[in-house]
Fold these 4 entries.
Entry 1:
Amino acid sequence: MIRSLSWNDLLFFLGALRWTVLLASIACLCGGVLGLGVALARVARSPAVRALAATYIQIVQGTPVLMLLFLSYYGLSLFGYDLPPMVAASVSMSIYVSGYLGDIWRGSIQSVAKQQWEASESLGMTRAQQYRHVILPQAIKISLPPTVGFMVQVVKNSSIASIIGFVELAKAGQLINNVTFQPFAVFLIVAALYFCVCYPLSHFSRRLERKSHA
């Protein structure tokens, strides 16, 4: 039965937006932890470790996010692991985030002046102390603008979770459109809600970039 948009539909959209933000947050948190390990491995002293990390980054960046989602949701079921849509989406998005943040943070670490490494080494610091007290504090400041900017892409790419039935914002738009047949109004609301999340992040990223350049 076709019906008009109602206030309850807007509440449904807001509830779906909450799941979109939650999925993006989990992906950025878990992917960030894994990405930090990838970045450190990418600048490790061992050539084998660097090569392994580089291969991981190339595989992740060369694989569409949708394929990662299918492998997590459908692929693991072949081995007896039936993941709920939320878990499968979180796993695939975290892997996707780790591949890109690992590369972003690797570049930030390598952009720290070589003299900083030499000075900290001359003070007798261990490798871990160099990272903790000298390199990472500077690398974090350098990496903040691109990291925040990348988070915008994570929020938008979370829409692929709708493919496996996870009711985030894009899926909510499809469901409401199926009963109202008002695609322009429905997806205009969906776009506006995405904008409300992504624009502040984009603006914050530009501010950080201008501040770091200054």
Note: Helices lie at 7-42, 47-61, 65-75, 85-110, 114-122, 127-157, 169-180, 183-213.
Entry 2:
Amino acid sequence: MSSVIQVSQVYYPESDGKPMGETDYHRKEIIRQIELLEDYYRGQKVYVSGDLLVYYVQGDPRKFVVPDAFVVKGIVPRDRRIYKIWVEGKAPDMVIETTSRRTRRKDRHIKPELYAQLGVKEYFLFDPLGEYLDPPLQGYRLDGNRYQPIEPDEDGGLESRELQLRLRLAEGHLDFVRMDTGERLLTRDERLREETEARKREAEARKREAERAEREAAARQAAEAEVTRLLAELARRPPAPE
């Protein structure tokens, strides 16, 4: 008599039914972080995502977490509907949570404990409105099985060893600065604005140079005309008596 093992397929939902951000400020900031990091790692074997369900226990669809933004190094950066740690072979290397009134308790107490258990090497908290965190940018690095605070620099920036970037506050935004070049990462819109401003400055500089050259040419013409006039006047004068 043979026995048949019945294997039921586990369904892992693609949404937890919650919005990406509590307010427009939070939603736009999360999207901006993801765009900056995606552009930075374009062409590399690094996966960047956010607001994606990350499942961490095979067979149990109740065991998931939804990071606002995260980076996983060493895996193919293809589009995913969900992220299963046991399939991908590793947890995120770095997570950023953009905290708000609704998420602040979970971001500060529940998620750090879970991320530490999963082996997330760095964990950052950012409060874009400066209402719930003091300071509004905080970072933690995994040491063993516990997080230790990342010491901020003089302007409150934090070093991410996993990303080789400095995270810093800038007018309500979270900026990323390359540690090798000091260059600030820019979104496509920010690059377009900077390029437009650069072209405007170059056009203004060319205009000023043309105006300066025109003034110099006019001054030379006026000087040459004056010399010509003086020579003509000298020529009209009667010769001095011998």
Note: Residues 24-185 form a domain with the tt1808, chain A fold (CATH 3.90.1570.10).
Entry 3:
Amino acid sequence: MGNRWNGCNIFDSWGIAVMHLSLVFFISMILSSCASVSGEAPADLVIGVVDPQRILVETTKGQRLTDDLNAFMKDRQTLVDLEQRELRELEDALRAQMTVLSESAKKIKEEQFRQKMGVYQQKVADLNREVQEKQQELQNEFRRNVRDVVSQIATNQNLGLVVEHGPNSGTLFHQESWDISAEVIQALNLESEKAGTP
């Protein structure tokens, strides 16, 4: 009993020593990280923020992207509407003939309708995929343009970091004076004017 008690004391002492060393190590890590944060470079970090939605709406390139995407979607919607109309006409004709068709003829017509419906659903899926790909392509091109302009402005203003803000961003707060959206919009519109973009 006495040996077991002494063993526990030794174990407890060892555990306390390990915990003490861990605590010292943890505190030293915190202090060293605080020292690096309070060092010269991070203190000089200047942050800028941009509002992508505002840039999209207020630039010629953003408006063109929206117009191009809308036109592309409208063309695809026209094709879908045409297919839908044909299916409805076929369905109406099938219903009208149901009372006069034999069972075998009904089955053939119903199978034809099912096949046409399957083709229609596949076409809708393909068109939706085309729209998504086009949207991605246009957005990527626009983001590249914005990124290039933001990089140039950040370099000119000696900004160390530029983040997005807006409804879908992770930025919860920023100083209004950090917002460089107006400069980005002006630079993008100037590029469009020089390029003669309508």
Note: The chain has a mean pLDDT of 80.
Entry 4:
Amino acid sequence: MPTTPVGKVFAGLELLMVLGGLVLLWRHFLGARSTRDTRPAAAPPALPRWRTGGLDIATLVWLVLCGGILFQVTGMGLLRAIGLEGTRLLVIVSACFQLGMLVGCLCYMRFTTTGRDYDRPRKGFLLAGTATFLMSLPPVFSLGIGWQALMNLFGIPIDQQEMIALFKNTDNLPLLGLMIALAALLAPLTEELIFRAGLFRMLHGQVSRWSAILLSAALFGVIHGSLASFPQLALLGIIWALAYERTGNIAVPMLAHALYNLNTVILLLAGIES
């Protein structure tokens, strides 16, 4: 629990957002149930199936990984050559990896045949993206509490994501600004283009709906490399895939992702770590 006045204020605001998310969840599912039998006809899906194959998935993954590794290795070499070490090196190298993955994804969109049908962000996402963020808070926080209790019960060490540890140990304002931009801008853009607009939509055209949702969400959780955060991240991947499927606009999960990351950063800066 927070002990400082600032921490208590932000904890109170977080509680209000969680309660707001509960209200939205209740209205969403109640409204869906009440209109289920009154729709005159089935509307066309907001997210049409994308007819791709295994080679397309392999190509996207290969380009993304190659771009991330190339930018990371190159960036690390250049930064070490100018004598940069420690936290600054780790943060900038992490940004290089994200940027490289984004470049790899953009190369797929630009230079492949199926990439021409890749979904791009569109207007009209603010309300849906904000609502998706708020509705994600109650289930994700509840799962996080239960998962941490389970890990404690079995004596499993609760590791933190590397970027969270860096946030807690950084007092350099320019570096902190870069980390916030990485968490709230670059990461949501890159990861939603790869995991929702890319992998989820590709899988959605080849396997069952829930297989595509669960597989892309599990991969999203795995790449963050934290056992303590894996269930919450996988659940977020499911929620954001459902929001993308429902709206057909990749900008919706991008905004929800950005708000979630920014919310996490604010809580860390306010001294609320769990």
Note: The chain has a mean pLDDT of 89.
